[in-house]
Amino acid sequence: MMNRPAEKLEQRNVDICIVGGLGRVGLPLGISFARAGMNVMLYDIDREAAGVVASGKMPFQDTGAEEALREVLGKRLFLSSEKSCIGASRFVIIVIGTPVDEHLNPRLIAFKQLFSEISEYLRDEQHVILRSTIFPGTTEWLYQYLRSKSRRTRVSFCPERIAEGKAMTELVSLPQIVSSCDADGLQEVSTLFSVLTRDIVVLQPKEAELAKLFTNASRYIQFAISNQFYQIALHHGIDFYRVHEAMVHNYPRISGFAPAGLTAGPCLFKDTMQLAAFSNNTFFLGHSAMLINEGLPNMIVQKLNEKYSLKDKVVGILGMAYKGDSDDARESLSYKLKKILEIEAMTVLCTDPFIGDKDFHALGDVIVRSDVLILGAPHAQYRELPIDHAAKIIVDVWNYWGRGGLF
Ligand SMILES: NC(=O)c1ccc[n+]([C@@H]2O[C@H](COP(=O)([O-])OP(=O)(O)OC[C@H]3O[C@@H](n4cnc5c(N)ncnc54)[C@H](O)[C@@H]3O)[C@@H](O)[C@H]2O)c1
């Protein structure tokens, strides 16, 4: 139901309009609310994604989402690319992207622009729920902004906490953190999210904003610890994974110790930087984690070069997504590796089963032609590959193939 005028939508009694409803967070959320019996309108400016979703297909991978989409599409789930549709729903959930800019500062302007565009459609009886990961204080800013426009619209912040690709199960199994600018708003969001889960955790808006940033920054730092230890071990010719295995063996105190890996993606890095900006750039742990995680591709290339001289080597990167079994290339460190290797190596060949790119090569071709193979993303289909480990130089930072982390 594209571009239908708002008057007609009003007759449909829409419960929720999701702004950014075709994104990785918005779409699974919309499907989940629709499955829970609510009428949901997905508003998005991405017309290509709208065409895909309108045909009953997911524009990205999310386990179980496509079947669920078909179940509700056209019955309780509708699409629109007209912002006037915002005025027709009781709740308006905002899930547009919140990237950092080239100086690693949050782009608050994107939110300000969005609200200057949509505020004419907001009504006093409506309730705006921010779901994107936001710079602390944004919820309060929005509340004051709407009040300055004489709008009584309620404002809440309920952060999304799913792991990409697992939204359909996690939305109904994880606790939902809810916060609101007033008591009635809190009651309303608690009731709304209790259709997904009974486990509702209440915070003040700024506490909830920080809870989300602290979560992502802690994970980013945890991965950086492993990546730093990996680098120290490698530098001394010691296999990090022999040490790692010994440390975690029957020793629950350190059971959460992550393997090393190319820590990347659209959230952890930028949210750590949002927190750094919020703390006036005194978040030293966060900045150190960024240097370690973002420096890993450079370190890999440097170590390879010291040992094998890459200028006469063909290097293959297996997996360009930011994590295993994902089709999301956003902020993937495989691309950073590719860029560095394009300067240092004779040839770079890339492959990924989930990302369409005319410059990528078939997996078999990359395996046969490469002297060096770097595992960029540990996709399940790479688990058993016909690789002659004795004939190739293999870089497996994750120890996905169980042969250790040395190369
Ligand atoms: N991806 C995740 O796994 C994840 C998990 C938790 C939280 N988050 C947070 O959720 C937010 C959204 O992330 P995402 O991965 O879904 O991003 P995304 O880029 O996949 O989705 C954002 C959507 O918003 C749409 N959009 C942008 N501007 C718009 C506008 N002015 N009007 C209407 N639609 C607009 C885009 O077309 C896109 O479809 C971010 O703040 C992110 O940090 C993401």
The largest sheet is: 8 strands, mixed
The second-level CATH architecture of the largest domain is 3-Layer(aba) Sandwich
Corresponding CATH superfamily of the largest domain: NAD(P)-binding Rossmann-like Domain
Strand order of the largest sheet: 3-2-1-4-5-6-7-8
Q: State the separation between the terminal residues, measured CA to CA.
A: 55 Å
User: How many β-strands, per DSSP?
Assistant: 12
Judged by helices, strands and strand pairing, the structural class is alpha/beta
The number of domains is 2
Low-confidence stretches: 1-11
Oligomer state equals: single chain
Query: Helicity range of the residues?
Result: 40-55%
Q: What value does the Rg take, in angstroms?
A: 23 Å
Q: What molecules are bound to this protein?
A: nicotinamide-adenine-dinucleotide
- Overall geometric form: globular
Task: Kindly report the average pLDDT value.
Answer: 95
Which series of helices and strands comes N to C? Answer: HEHEHHEEHEHEHEHEHHHHEHEHEE
Look up the CATH topology of the largest domain: Rossmann fold
Strand content: 5-15%
Features:
single chain, 407 residues, four-stranded parallel sheet
